[in-house]
Amino acid sequence: MEQTALDDHEYRAAVTDLLGVLAYGELTAFVRMAVDSDLAPTLSLKSQMAQLAHTEYVQYTLLVEHLRSLGIDPEEAMQPFVAPFSSFHERTRPKSWLEGLVKAYVGDGIGKDFYREVSTFVAPETREVMLAALDDQTESDFVVQIVRDALRTDPTAAGRLALWGRRLMGEALSQAQAVAVERDAMSALLIGGGMDLAEVGRMFARLTENHQRRMTRLGLEA
Amino acid sequence: MEQTALDDHEYRAAVTDLLGVLAYGELTAFVRMAVDSDLAPTLSLKSQMAQLAHTEYVQYTLLVEHLRSLGIDPEEAMQPFVAPFSSFHERTRPKSWLEGLVKAYVGDGIGKDFYREVSTFVAPETREVMLAALDDQTESDFVVQIVRDALRTDPTAAGRLALWGRRLMGEALSQAQAVAVERDAMSALLIGGGMDLAEVGRMFARLTENHQRRMTRLGLEA
After folding, report:
1. CA distance from start to end of chain B
2. How far apart are CA B127 and CA B122, in angstroms?
3. How confident is the model over A38-60, as pLDDT tens digits?
4. A148, A164, B29, B203: which one has the fewest Cβ atoms less than 10 Å from its Cβ?
């Protein structure tokens, strides 16, 4: 039972961090996507982007409820991650609708891959909620078609957006590293959970490969 | 049955407009509230504002589904209202978290009062969906306490926010008037539905009274 595992101070701290970072990530993704939907050139696209934002919000509420059910205060759990996320979003403010779309698709993808990796180290109850909160039901697939269409009508966009994708990955990694250094318990969960440094390396290789696959799907060089 | 009523060209045009303006209003309220939640000084307030935004989105989807069930294209129905709403939001961009809160509370209140008035002129099926889409379950009540607390710590805010409330009402009325002039069918629904000009006048008096009540509740002079 997870409740027993939570008696372990280290495990509790790690799960608090993990759910906190995931919840706050969904909340800020909700806000960013809603903001970016304002840049949409058509009503239909605005509505689809709003739908993506809405899904993030629903997933956020799942995590908040789960935190409460574990007796963990959601706000306290999220607080340490306010600064790194706000840093990430400050540094990756989309300057166009297309940049916003690529960010929604690629940024979300990187985050969710990472959480899926980490979910193997937590108790089944928490893993289940995490996986539900990560299920995007391929809603973001509409992004692929729009980006590909845009590249056809404006071939110069490919270079700019490829650069943008690399920047998103770079900023995400740099914030993740800052968080890993700060949050001992979360890092210990990975290492203590059976990952040695070589395994951590392989995890990052998998994250990068998935990122490249997403960029390719968009028609962009990773 | 509403389907029969919809055979009447005028009624169909009026209901299309009415549901279109309501749906687009909810969609833009969703975006604006999500954007404004970014100004929240604490995580808890950000989360509560996001919750308000989320409710608007859910209500938006109700209206879109109802439009589809009547065989009306939601995007075509919303299109005529993109410009007036964008005008309204351009002219009432909150410069602070408190202004955003007052706008969410007061602006939403004015809109919903108006739609509730109009809902008495449509067929029961549409009325039911409209009333569901207008049900805010007193979620926005948290706003009242925050604004009152803010006025206690900064008494000079009262004058500024009172002015802001009057501006919101003025801009809302001015956009509503522009819409009424443009959209004959919707105006005809009110007038043809039994409202004479005196009754329209009384409706505006009721809207203004409710607005004043909301301002008083916030601790502000209307």
Report:
1. 42
2. 6
3. 889 899 999 999 998 999 999 99
4. A148
CB A69 within 8 A of CB A6: no
Instruction: Count CB atoms within 10 A of the CB of residue A79.
Output: 14
Mean pLDDT for all residues in chain B: 88
Residues in chain A closer than 8 A to B47 (CB atoms): 27, 64, 74-75
Say yes or no: ipTM exceeds 0.85.
no
Give the pLDDT confidence score for residue A138 in this predicted structure: 66
Q: Which among A21, A24, A38 is the top mutation candidate for probing chain B, defined by the most B β-carbons within 10 Å of its own β-carbon?
A: A38
Sign of CA dihedral A53, A89, A120, A139: positive
- Tens of pLDDT, residues A146-167: 899 989 998 889 999 999 999 9
Please state, in angstroms and rounded to a whole number, the distance separating the CA atoms of residues B108 and A85: 30
**Count of Cβ atoms closer than 10 Å to residue A128 Cβ:** 13
> Could you tell me if B80 lies within 8 Å of chain A, comparing CB atoms?
no
Q: Do the Cβ atoms of B57 and A38 come within 8 Å?
A: no
pLDDT at residue B155 in the model? 83
| CB proximity under 8 Å: B 131-190 to A | none
Question: Which residue is it, tokens 């410069």?
Answer: B95
Share of chain A above pLDDT 90, in %: 45
Taking an 8 Å cut-off on Cβ atoms, the answer to whether A31 and B37 are in contact is yes
A10, two tokens: 């280290």
**Residue recorded with tokens 């697939």:** A141
Q: How far is CA B98 from the centre of its chain?
A: 19
**Closest CA of chain B from A199, distance in Å:** 35
Report how far residue B127's alpha carbon sits from residue B61's, in angstroms, rounded to the nearest whole number: 16
**Of B198, B203, B171, B201, which Cα lies nearest the Cα of B89?**
B171
Q: For position A122, what pLDDT does the model report?
A: 87
Q: Give the integer Cα–Cα distance in Å for A110 and A78.
A: 19
Q: How many CB atoms lie within 10 A of CB A11?
A: 21
The DSSP line for B102-130 is: HIIIIIHHHHHHHHHHHGGGS-HHHHHHH
Please give the Cα distance from B37 to B32 (Å, whole number): 9
Q: Quick: pLDDT tens for A179-216.
A: 877 888 777 777 777 677 788 788 888 988 999 999 99
Residue pair B108/B137 in contact by the 8 Å Cβ criterion: no
Query: Taking 90 as the threshold, does the pLDDT of residue B35 lie above it?
Result: no
Residue A117 scores a pLDDT above 80? yes
